[in-house]
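Components:
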Amino acid sequence: ETMRSFLKALPKCEHHVHLEGTLEPELLFSLAKRNNITLPDHFPKSKAELTERYNNFSDLQDFLNFYYIGCAVLLSEDDFFDLAWSYFERVAVNDGLAHSEAFFDPQSHTERGIDISVVIKGFKRACVKAEKELGISTKLIMCLLRHLPNEHGLQTIDQAKEFIVNGDIHALGLDSAEKPFPPELFAECYAKVKELNPEINLTAHGGEEGDHTYVSNSLDLLKTTRVDHGVNSVQSEELLKRLSEERVLLSVCPMSNIKLQVFQNIHEIPLNTFLEFDVPFSLNSDDPAYFGGYILDNYVAVHENFGFKLPVWEKIVKNSIHGSWCHQERKDEML
Ligand code: HPA
Ligand code: ZN
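Structure:
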């Protein structure tokens, strides 16, 4: 308990959380009802049954199938606002979060006929309110779904153009099923976004189920300056040295890695190798409503399994702040 309060008090930054992945079973069922959405026949009927099913994902795809059904209960701008606001409020109050860079998946909504501006305006309104009332800083990262074709990504970028240009979308990311969809498929999308706004930041999921080349190719071919998950980077010593030299942050998600069976135990996650090679990483929740823990639970789980001493926690927290995409003044406040 004292360890939890110590970890809560650290100025934590979250770089890897999918807003759609913060949809708690309770909100899922209540939005389904409010919006008259019929859930599939095979979908668990109660909160308890659903939570139990969430405890037994066999892999990334098994989880994604549930995640996209969950997305389908979100319709109105208020739905998107409510979702993001409940996440921001929860982590600011319960977890001591200082800064949140949150992903969203517009294609999982536009595919269902929802206008992209409905999604972005709802999320943005929650960001503004969180900054004002909770004192945290926030950024939105638009992700493209890699199981959809490049052309669909380009269309999405075109639909989101005004928000890419005005900076409401602070960065571009890439998520969903990794393995048969290597980063190079989306090089055109990444180049297009950078052309629309040269200031935009770039990241991509890689090295979660894909091998180390998914990490290096994200850097080389998409020009990302961060990689999400990236745990399979340990397969290449050359890559580890590069990540350290170029200060590329990996957004590691410990509880997600266990729930999706990337590793069987938290202590198998290569945090000690990253520390040894001085590869910067942050600790994150990924899809907290699905994986049973928010950011502080992830910090606690790492502490219980690695027993890091104070200097290591200081290093992790400092690397997380330095690797954040906020102004230097905001970093100085957190440091
Ligand atoms: N990996 C890939 N796609 C995702 C994830 C993830 O962890 N969460 C939501 N979409
Ligand atoms: Zn993720």
